[in-house]
Design goal:
Blueprint lengths: L14 H11 L4 H18 L8 H9 L5 H13 L29 H12 L1 H15 L1 H9 L10 E5 L11 H18 L8 H21 L6 H19 L6 H13 L3 E4 L7 E6 L1 E4 L6 E4 L3 H19 L8 E2 H12 L3 H12 L8 E6 L13 E4 L5 E4 L1 E6 L6
Antiparallel strand pairs: 1-3, 2-3, 4-5, 6-10, 7-10, 8-9
Helix pairs in contact: 1-2, 1-4, 1-5, 2-3, 5-6, 6-7, 8-9, 8-10, 9-10, 12-13, 12-14
């Protein structure tokens, strides 16, 4: 068995490490670890269900299928070996889901560092995850590089990293080649304007994007797969993401970037959005300062009462800016205002939501405006955004999709 290199493990959720380590602490078999990860995935989907679509029967079927989530179990065990928390298994690990049946009863030996971390998760989960940050920085140069690129390290050259994108315009883009040329021009224009947090020459931008798109297109054609407009646009985003991180000094593929932005949002270290005001782009920024590495790593997050006061002040600013745009409506999607505020203050979505919750409890009475939330919807929310979920007095959760701001002073937007 190989523990792999230093690349980012393909774990959709960082909490899988905690789930597996606690199971290992209880001398779990491979099959028990696999089922524990499925239970965690099921809980995540249940917690994010806002429309009653959660299907428990589906998860029971997945749980009983011995070939499901095998890759997750293998990847998390490899990661535990890589970071020095688990002894390398003498029996190896399943090479494919089809071979998992040969390993269902395999057990593993925790090393002292792994046992100590698993025990810590049960008494001080926050400290355990803070410790995990330092461990991941040591184990994965790309993890530390990502933090540096988005402004979460002392030596970060900027506070954020911006990846320019371009929407398809049916009145202009008659075919993929026309779009690709315009896309490259737009990226080069943004790079030339500066303030992206990375740099590449026009030649490097064009070569990086065209060669990547060409390779993916050829691969699809060789497999007989049709390239839709959506897959083409996704490929263009993947291409410019790779170019951007290379320009920031962090060789990173798109999938690794997706995982890292998800992990760092979960850890409260960074955030991202496609919907901040300004030209269409993927924007990533640090929400904490991470110093050191390993056991000496320290983290200072931008959160607390003063930050939440800034959030509520910025809500009015974001609302006024939005109302100044042609065609703006009385209500705005919550995720749109949240993106504007979090980008402006370089904070996490969670801190924004906490500020709004405090406001609904009357903790900030002198804001100069009234904030009204509603469960109505202006359409489906983008997949990369989170709903605003607030607890009611009865303990139930309510999802709020839109908001309006009504100034209470003489200055109207």
């Amino acid at each position: 068995m190989s523990a792999g290199g230093s690349g980012i493990p393909r774990l959709q959720d960082l909490s899988y490490i905690e789930v597996a380590m606690v199971a290992l602490l209880q001398d779990a078999t491979f099959e028990q670890i696999r089922r524990s990860l499925i239970d965690r995935a099921r809980d995540i989907e249940r917690d994010s269900d806002t429309d009653g679509s959660f299907d428990d029967a589906k998860w029971e079927r997945i749980r009983s299928d011995g070939q499901k989530h095998v890759h997750n179990a293998v990847d998390v065990l490899k990661e535990a070996v890589r970071i020095g928390w688990l002894k390398r298994p003498s029996t190896g690990l399943p090479s494919t889901p089809a071979s998992a049946y040969l390993h269902v009863d395999d057990r593993y030996e925790l090393l002292p560092a792994g046992r100590a971390w698993a025990e810590l998760t049960k008494t001080d989960r926050r400290s355990a995850y803070n410790d995990l940050v330092g461990t991941l920085i040591d184990a994965h140069p790309q993890f530390g590089g990502f933090l540096r690129a988005v402004g979460a390290r002392p030596d970060s050259p900027t506070q954020a990293l911006t990846i320019p994108l371009l929407r398809w315009d049916g009145t202009v883009h008659s075919d993929e080649e026309r779009y690709l040329g315009d896309f490259i021009n737009e990226v080069n224009r943004a790079v030339g304007a500066g303030a992206l947090g990375w740099f590449a020459s026009p030649e490097a931008v064009e070569e990086g994007i065209r060669s990547y798109v060409g390779r993916i297109r050829a691969r699809r054609e060789a497999r007989g797969k049709t390239q839709t407009r959506k897959t083409f646009l996704n490929t263009c985003e993947e291409a410019v993401t790779k170019v951007a991180f290379a320009g920031a000094g962090v060789p990173l593929d798109y999938l690794s970037m997706e995982l890292l932005r998800r992990w760092t949002r979960f850890l409260g270290l960074a955030n991202f959005t496609y919907y901040a005001p300004g030209p269409y782009a993927l924007r990533l920024w640090g929400t904490a300062m991470v110093e050191g590495h390993g056991t000496s790593a320290s983290i200072e997050r931008r959160l607390g009462p003063d930050i939440r006061k800034q959030v509520l002040s910025s809500v009015l600013d974001a609302w006024n800016e939005r109302r100044s745009l042609p065609g703006s409506a009385m209500y705005a999607p919550v995720w749109e205002i949240r993106a504007a505020v979090c980008w402006r203050l370089r904070i996490s979505d969670v801190e924004f939501d906490r500020a709004i919750e405090e406001h609904t409890h009357g903790e900030h009475p002198d804001l100069g405006y009234q904030l009204h939330l509603d469960q109505a919807s202006l359409g489906p929310a983008p997949g990369s955004t989170r709903p605003l979920v607030l607890p009611t007095a009865s303990g139930h959760r309510r999802v709020f999709n839109v908001m309006t701001v009504i100034p209470t002073d003489k200055e109207k937007p």
